[in-house]
Specification:
Length: 222
């Protein structure tokens, strides 16, 4: 890792492997290595642009990478995913590493963050993934994005109702919205939201700090 010893780099990978085992997720060595490169670049670029408030490598392993892929089984049979507010690449890049056949679009309104994501995509030699500099609203009317995705996902992008409204134009007929939330997710559920969407929740716990996490799965009522 940048400015870290080989021992710290090894500890990051071991921490990741131990966390994946706790979550019951199998990753190949090359996938662990790719996530370690992502973490290294995140820390390097974070000195120039604000990508994450988390500085400790082991916390990055848990709060960014493990959190991003804890629900990877949800996307095994999916084809097209769009990540709104991708920031430092979470959850989109770890999901892509774990599911390389999934076609992914990363959206962010910050050009600097998109430059980081493009750098990362080149560095990791990832295929069928692109980083797009745009406000989400500006893509709603574009044919390349309208009703093209079976997964719209976000992690700490905006409130649930706002996210659902922004996500809906991207969904194909059988598509689903996935919002990654903490323990207070139920405070974001409104009667108006439940009139428009069916809601299911997936609960998991981060392996080391034992904090509760939830993926909210929304499907539009027809």
């Amino acid at each position: 890792m940048h400015n870290l010893s080989k021992e710290s780099f090894l500890q990051f990978k071991q921490h990741l492997e131990k966390g994946l085992k706790y979550l019951g997720i199998k990753a190949f060595d090359h996938q662990i290595d790719m996530m370690a490169v992502h973490a290294r670049e995140l820390m390097v670029w974070n000195k120039k642009i604000n990508l994450t408030a988390i500085k400790d490598p082991l916390k990055i392993a848990e709060k960014h990478f493990l959190d991003s892929i804890a629900s990877i089984s949800l996307f095994e049979n999916k084809k097209n995913l769009i990540d709104l507010g991708a920031g430092g690449g979470f959850p989109g890049i770890p999901i892509k590493i774990m599911n390389p056949l999934l076609k992914i679009v990363l959206i962010d309104a910050s050009r600097k963050k998109i430059n980081f994501l493009k750098h990362l995509i080149r560095l990791l030699h990832l295929d069928n993934i692109e980083a797009v500099h745009s406000r989400v609203e500006d893509l709603h009317g574009k044919e390349a994005y309208k009703k093209k995705f079976d997964v719209v996902i976000s992690r700490a992008f905006t409130g649930l109702s706002g996210f659902a409204g922004l996500a809906l134009p991207f969904l194909e007929n059988e598509g689903r919205i996935y919002a990654m939330k903490g323990r207070n997710w139920n405070r974001e559920i409104t009667p108006e939201l439940l009139k428009k969407f069916n809601l299911k929740t997936l609960h998991y716990r981060l392996p080391f700090e034992k904090s509760d996490r939830y993926v909210l799965k929304l499907s539009a009522k027809r």
